[in-house]
Design a protein that fits this description.
The structure holds 2 protein chains of 2 kinds.
Chain A (H helix, E strand, L loop, with lengths): L17 E9 L5 H8 L5 E6 H5 L15 E12 L2 E7 L17 E9 L7 H9 L4 E6 L9 H8 L7 E4 L4 H20 L6
Parallel strand pairs in A: 1-4, 1-5, 5-6, 6-7
Antiparallel strand pairs in A: 2-3, 3-4
Helix pairs in contact in A: 1-5
Chain B lengths: L12 H8 L17 E4 L9 H9 L4 E2 H8 L3 H13 L3 E4 L13 H12 L2
Antiparallel strand pairs in B: 1-2, 1-3
Classes of the chains: A alpha/beta, B mainly alpha.
C-alpha cells in the first residue's frame, strides 16, 4: 500500500466514474466497426472470447486447441460523456451464430443501434429479431453507401417490418457527426420509452 | 528425429492454462462481470504477486472497463474473469457494473439519459 498513487483517496480524477453501454448491431458488413471507429474517443479495441468456455462440457474431442478461428471478437470504443460517465460502444460479432457466446451481452445495455445496408436489407433481419426477442430498445440506422439507391424511409420501414414508433434514420457510419446523431436519436427514443411506461415497443 | 516441438502457442491456450492455473469459468463475485464493468484498484501490487494480477492493479488505478483490460492484456474475457475473481475475492479491486438500463421494470433513468444526451451533443 505504499506505492505512489494508491494511498491518496480522492486523488483520482473521475473517482466515482460509472459506465453505460450501447450495442451496435446489424448484419455482416453493414458498418458496425466503422461506426464504432468513427465515433469513439479512443482507438477502437477488440476484446475476445474463445469457444473453449462454451464447448468445455460438450466437445472435448474436436481438437479445439487447433482451431484459432473459434475466437469471436467484439470491437468496441468509448465516449467520455462527462468526468464521471463513460459510454462504451460494442459492435456485435458479425456472425450472428456466435451471439450465444455473448450471453448477457445485451443485458445492461441502454439500447442498440441496428445498422442496415439498404442494398442488402435481409442481412439485418436477424439482428432486428434478436433485439425484439431480447427486449432491447433500438433504432434503425440506414448506413448509406455511395452506391445505395435513394429509398424513401417508409418503404424501408415496410420492407423491414418495423413498428411505427421505432425511429429509422439515415447515416454515414464513416462520419463522426453522423454516427453521433444516430446515438442521439437512440437516446431520444429511450427517453420517450422511459417517459411512457407500459407502451408497447 | 521427429519434428521439433512447436515453440510458440498460437492458440494462446497453453498460456491461458498457466495464467489461470487451469481454472475455468469465474464463479462468485466475478460471475456478474460485464464487458462494460469498470474495474478500479483498491490497493497497490505486493511483491510475489502473479504478474497478471499486478498488471491489472497497475492499469486500473483509474477505472478501466473489463473490455479494455482484456484488449490491453491480450486475454479473452473468460480468462480475465478468472483473474478478476481472485482480485475481487482478495478485496484488491472494486467492480462497478454498468448503470442498469432497466430499474425494476421501468426504462432507464431519465436523468441519466439527459446526461448522456448532453454529453453526445457536445461532441
Amino acid at each position: 500500500m505504499d506505492l505512489k498513487g494508491f494511498d491518496h483517496p480522492g486523488r483520482t480524477a473521475g473517482d466515482g466514474t460509472r459506465s453505460v453501454k450501447v450495442m451496435i448491431a446489424g448484419g455482416f458488413g453493414t458498418g458496425k466497426t466503422t461506426m464504432v471507429r468513427s465515433v469513439s474517443d479512443i482507438r477502437p479495441l477488440t476484446t475476445e472470447e474463445t469457444l473453449t468456455q462454451a464447448s468445455a462440457d460438450v466437445d472435448h474431442l474436436i481438437g479445439v486447441a487447433d482451431k484459432t478461428e473459434t475466437t469471436v471478437s467484439l470491437d468496441f470504443g468509448k465516449i467520455g460523456i462527462n468526468d464521471e460517465l463513460v459510454l462504451y460502444l460494442f459492435g456485435t460479432p458479425g456472425q450472428e451464430r456466435f451471439w450465444f457466446l455473448w450471453n448477457g451481452l445485451f443485458k445492461g445495455a441502454l439500447g442498440a443501434v441496428v445498422l442496415v445496408d439498404t442494398r442488402r436489407l435481409a442481412s439485418s433481419f436477424r439482428a432486428i429479431e434478436e433485439m425484439e426477442r431480447q427486449d432491447v430498445p433500438f433504432v434503425i440506422a440506414l448506413n448509406i453507401f455511395p452506391d445505395s439507391k435513394d429509398h424513401p424511409v417508409e418503404e424501408i420501414r415496410d420492407a423491414l417490418d418495423i413498428a411505427p414508433h421505432i425511429p429509422v434514420v439515415a447515416c454515414d457510419a464513416r462520419d463522426r457527426a453522423s454516427s453521433r446523431d444516430v446515438l442521439i436519436a437512440l437516446i431520444r427514443h429511450l427517453k420517450e420509452y422511459s417517459a411512457g411506461p407500459g407502451e408497447p415497443r | 528425429m521427429s519434428a521439433p516441438r512447436r515453440a510458440t502457442d498460437p492458440s494462446g491456450l497453453e498460456r491461458y492454462y498457466v495464467v489461470t492455473r487451469g481454472r475455468s469459468g469465474p464463479g462468485g463475485p466475478a460471475s456478474s462481470l460485464d464487458v462494460a464493468t469498470l474495474i478500479v484498484s483498491l490497493s497497490a501490487p505486493v511483491p510475489g504477486m502473479q504478474h497478471e494480477h499486478e498488471d491489472i492493479l497497475r492499469r486500473c488505478r483509474d477505472p478501466l472497463s473489463v473490455a479494455e483490460l482484456g484488449a490491453h492484456l491480450g486475454l479473452p474475457f473468460n480468462i480475465l474473469a478468472v483473474l478478476l475473481a481472485d482480485l475481487l475475492e482478495a478485496g484488491r479491486v472494486e467492480a462497478r457494473d454498468p448503470i442498469p438500463a432497466h430499474d425494476a421494470g421501468r426504462g432507464p433513468d431519465l436523468a441519466l439519459l439527459e446526461e448522456v444526451l448532453s454529453g453526445l451533443e457536445r461532441l
